[in-house]
Write a structure and sequence with these properties.
By secondary structure, this protein is of the alpha/beta class. The protein contains 10 helices and 7 strands. A 7-stranded mixed β-sheet has the order 3-2-1-4-5-7-6, with helices on both faces. The relative contact order is 0.13.
């Protein structure tokens, strides 16, 4: 099965070593096992995990060089996209942030089993984490996948980024509409649209999109607002 994973990832332009592929196999097995007792993913078929989780996430590395960068994965859930990115690009410094303690515990188990270094798992809500001195405006790249509409996600992501840093959102077919609805948020949070990259998923007729935005100025102290205010009145 590691060969299928390697072939799958090679379809998006990334070459994995046997060691990296084996780490993904272990991650997949732990994900499937833990999913029996807690809701981590609706995708449980081994090949679909390789395609719709691993390839989908690692595609970021084909378009944005993560090596040596300080990256935060906001609302990482079962570890996507941050953990596959870390496995594919080991020199990254990854912070996995999630609001559910049980998910964070699972991620810590995976990181230990895979002997990953320069990775931390933090249990906090994004709006709280972005107020912490060691996290605020400290990252080169913020990534997020399947967390919230873009106009909401921008407010969670921007405060974590250094000026000049990149916000990378993994999106589906609604990406164009979401960007249109996020114009005020992008302007208010000094996020400039860089590119929208279509990414076909290997061995499927599905195309996802990697939306990239650059932070051009520091974030105002008034952001992020509380989760209630963000959901009730998105920028």
């Amino acid at each position: 099965m590691s060969e299928f994973i390697k072939n799958c990832i090679s379809e998006i332009g990334i070459t994995l070593s046997d060691k990296q592929a084996n780490k993904l196999v272990t991650y997949r097995d732990m994900l499937i096992e833990k999913n029996k007792v807690m809701n981590l993913t609706a995708i449980t078929d081994e090949k679909e995990i390789a395609i719709k989780h691993f390839a989908d996430c690692i595609a970021v590395c084909a378009h944005i060089d993560p090596n040596g960068k300080n990256i935060i994965d906001i609302g990482t859930g079962a570890g996507f996209p941050g953990l596959p990115i870390k496995i594919a690009a080991p020199s990254t410094h990854i912070t996995l942030l999630d609001s559910l303690a049980k998910r964070v515990s699972f991620l810590e188990e995976v990181c230990a089993a895979l002997s990953l270094e320069d990775i931390q798992c933090i249990h906090t809500r994004a709006e709280d984490g972005a107020r912490e001195t060691e996290l605020r405006e400290n990252f080169d790249i913020a990534v997020s996948r399947a967390v919230a509409p873009l106009n909401v996600l921008c407010e969670y992501a921007a405060p974590f980024l250094k000026t000049g840093g990149l916000f990378v959102a993994l999106k589906g077919q609604t990406v164009t509409e979401e960007i249109e609805n996020a114009q005020n948020a992008l302007s208010e949070l000094a996020l400039k649209q860089e590119e929208i990259i279509p990414q076909p998923l290997p061995y499927t007729d599905i195309t996802h999109y990697i939306a990239v935005f650059k932070k051009t100025a520091p974030t105002s102290d008034k952001y992020p607002r509380t989760a209630k205010k963000i959901s009730r009145s998105p920028l």
